[in-house]
Every structure is written in C-alpha cells, then in structure tokens.
Amino acid sequence: MKEYSKSKLNRVKRGNKRATYDVEKINTILDAGFLGYVSYIYDGKALCLPMGYGRKDNKIYLHGSNANRMLLTLIEAKEMSMTVTHLDGLVLARSGLHHSVNYRSATLFGTVRKVENDTDKEAALVCFMEQMIENRWDEIRPINQKELDRTLVVEMTIETASAKIRDVGVEDEPEDYDLDIWAGIVPIRQIADYPISDKGISENMKIPEHVLEYYVINKS
Amino acid sequence: MKEYSKSKLNRVKRGNKRATYDVEKINTILDAGFLGYVSYIYDGKALCLPMGYGRKDNKIYLHGSNANRMLLTLIEAKEMSMTVTHLDGLVLARSGLHHSVNYRSATLFGTVRKVENDTDKEAALVCFMEQMIENRWDEIRPINQKELDRTLVVEMTIETASAKIRDVGVEDEPEDYDLDIWAGIVPIRQIADYPISDKGISENMKIPEHVLEYYVINKS
C-alpha cells in the first residue's frame, strides 16, 4: 500500500492542498517523534492524552499499567485515533488571519487489540524504547516476569490516516505585499541538552555511546 | 478559585502524586505554549487535532473558517476538552519500565459558545496572537469586516481541569541502583532559530523589536 484510501473519516477538509495520504510520508512524521495524542471517549466526552508510542510497519504500540483507564477503554472500544505533530515554525504574516505555523501532523485511525503473548509484549516494549532512543534496550536490566505481568500492551493496526504538512513561507493577500510591515518565519525546533547522569552514577562511569549519539543528533 | 474541584472527569488516576488541580499552575502550563490538542467526537469516534489557542482568565479562544468541521462540532456539542503538553526530557532508567519523560501536561474540560459580536471576535483574535507572539497585533494590517465575517471564533470556559508534572530524576527499583548501568536525564527543549524575512521584504527593513524579543527569549 502506498497511499491510505480516503474516507469520510480521514479526508482533510480544510487546507487540502497541504494534505497527504502517502504511507511513507506519514511514517516519516511518526518516526520523527515518540509522543502522540491518543483520543478516547470517557463518559460520553472526547478527550486526549499524550502517550509514548512505538511504530513497526502499520502497527502502533502503547503500554501502561493493567489498570490504565485509557488503555482499557481503547481495548473495549476496539478502535482508536492518534495524532502526532511537530511544530517547525511561526509564520508571521502582514495580516492577522494569514498568521500560521509550519508543522507536520499525522492523524491515524485504526483497530485495537490487547497483546497477550509475553514474547509479543516484550517485542512491543523494545519497539517502544527504540522509538524513544535507539540501541538502549540491550544495555539495561532485562525485564522480568512480574513486570511483564503487570504491564498492559495495546496494539493499534493503522487502517487509515492522513497528514497535513505546511513548510512554505508567508502567504499574504496580494494587495498586502506593498505594505511597510515585516513578515517572515521564526523557525522552531526541539533540541536535546547534554545528558545528566543520575545521582547514583559513579563519576567513573562513562555516558554510553547510544545516549551520546542521541544528544549529538538532537543538540542545537 | 485557587483549585479546580475534582470530579470523575478530571481526577488523575495513574501517578496521582504528579497531579495538580491548582489554577495558577495549570495557567502557567497553558501560557508556556500556544498549541493545544482539541478533542471531539466525529461519526461516533474520538479524535483530536492540534489547534492554536489564546487564553484569557478562564477562557480559551480558538478560531477557523466558518466551515471548520471541528469548530462546528464543538459548538453543537456545547462542550470540549483540550490538552497542552510540554516535553522537558527523556528519563533513562536502569530498567525498561522505569523509562519515562519529564513533562508538563494540562487537560481542560469546559463549555463552548460561538462568539457572535465583532468586538468580542476581534478581542479573541488579539488574545490568540498575543499567546503566539507578544506585541505583534498593533504592527500588522488591521483586520477588515470581510475577514471578521468569514471567521468562526469559539470560546471555551474552563469548568474543570487537571495537570500532571514530572520534573524529577530517575526512579528505579531499589535493588537496581547497584547495577553497572548508566541512567540519567536527557533534557529536551523547544527553541527558536533566527527569524527569516519573507521574500517580499526589502533588505532595508529591520526585523521588528517584538520578533527579535521572541527570538532572544526562545533561542538555544
């Protein structure tokens, strides 16, 4: 599949020249982060919460404790939606209504199942950690059965999705370009600062390669 | 009001030692950004979209075109929820399940009305722009009646809310502190790069004070 098919649910209505249904483009947005906003209905009301996720192919993995209200609600609903957005800049126009932001945003819709098998649960947790920071799982204390037992893992299969990307300059009304008003872009980025060792870490222990690599890739 | 009262809807269930219902603390989280995730129900499904907002006292303002599906749905539902989160760091623990992030996240619940009066609409748009970048509204081309007429402004009154803040170090199992595994925090921040003038801007036009000020406050 190269493109998600358009339906009533995922078709972008406003600003559809910025819309994409391209699977690879949407995966690129998902893989540029690890924090998504998961929507659910509670007591008849829609709400969303930020959640770490891992993506593998067309699957999204979430986890939490066995008592996690949102995850239990998603399993019961058998479906979910998640939105991931990266803010790339302020768009400062000559008129108020042409102010905007540059961004990459993907909204996913899919089916949900609880992951039951321990091997699959661990694989999902590895996927989750790889999404946050690569190459760390093998360097930490292995997960034990007690931990696996008290962890709820949810798998979403992406059934359809859409994304919106704005990555251009200011777009003002034609007659406003002659005005003596400054317009432009203020680029926005998310960066990492130098890692801070935990209080229990001896001064002789070096910061591992995979952590320094994350820092180098993400520093300002 | 100093604290939002706790109800079934806003009471934080998981990790409630990190919860706060303090109005000022929640306002501080809201005022540290301008992009929220607004949840709504469409065709029986919950979804959320990123939206710019302005806050004044206990009111949140959103706007869009008169045909904006989400805003029209919110007006019909007469209620909405919005979540605002700032990511502050990766928490890299000695075991997988103690990995976390440092963050500040607020979730609001409230009633919704369409703003009808032109004066109130413009005031809401000023509030919206001030939230994104201060002191710009008076420097741009004034809004005209045609623009006001085709803009839908929605006002949410915050009825209840909660926030979760994690701003501490690694919290591992007591027996894991002796392991020869590096643990620590990688701080994460959102920064601004130097403003880029629009293609139509003459080289003689200086970047205005309010834009440079935004850059200086937010640069790495």
TrEMBL record, chains A, B:
<protein>
    <submittedName>
        <fullName>Pyridoxamine 5'-phosphate oxidase family protein</fullName>
    </submittedName>
</protein>
<dbReference type="Pfam" id="PF12900">
    <property type="entry name" value="Pyridox_ox_2"/>
</dbReference>
<dbReference type="InterPro" id="IPR012349">
    <property type="entry name" value="Split_barrel_FMN-bd"/>
</dbReference>
<dbReference type="InterPro" id="IPR024747">
    <property type="entry name" value="Pyridox_Oxase-rel"/>
</dbReference>
